[in-house]
Inverse folding.
């Protein structure tokens, strides 16, 4: 099992560069059912929720490449996108997702694992905030 470091938020985990993600994804996503019993019934029902968003803010002095997984939105894209310095972008997602960053020459990467409706502020690969 990879080593995870809690961030300042209870619902975010910092993923260290070089960390193997397969065990993390399995334990945090695949082990959690997408259906559960409702309080008023012993029957299992699919619980539908509205689509949320992630806002990524690039607070650094140069463009940064951003990846957002698409576990909760199969129609979304999990390609890398460039976010210019001082700009913000949003992604439509509905649950726990991985947000990763890399620099222009791909010599460094970092990321966070967060729940929907959060803002991720990128200051540097060593300073990523979740609000």
């Amino acid at each position: 099992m990879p080593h995870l470091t809690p961030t300042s938020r209870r619902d975010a985990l910092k993923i260290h560069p070089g960390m193997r993600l397969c065990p993390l994804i399995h334990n945090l996503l695949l082990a959690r059912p997408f259906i559960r019993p409702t309080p008023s019934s012993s029957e299992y029902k699919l619980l539908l929720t509205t689509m949320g968003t992630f806002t990524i803010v690039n607070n650094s002095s140069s463009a940064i490449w951003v990846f957002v997984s698409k576990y909760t939105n199969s129609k979304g894209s999990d390609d890398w996108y460039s976010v210019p310095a001082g700009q913000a972008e949003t992604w439509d997602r509905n649950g726990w997702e991985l947000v990763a960053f890399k620099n222009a020459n791909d010599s460094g990467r970092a990321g966070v694992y967060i729940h929907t409706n959060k803002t991720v502020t990128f200051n540097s690969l060593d300073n990523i905030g979740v609000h």
Summary: The longest strand covers residues 52-58. DSSP finds one helix and twelve strands in the chain.
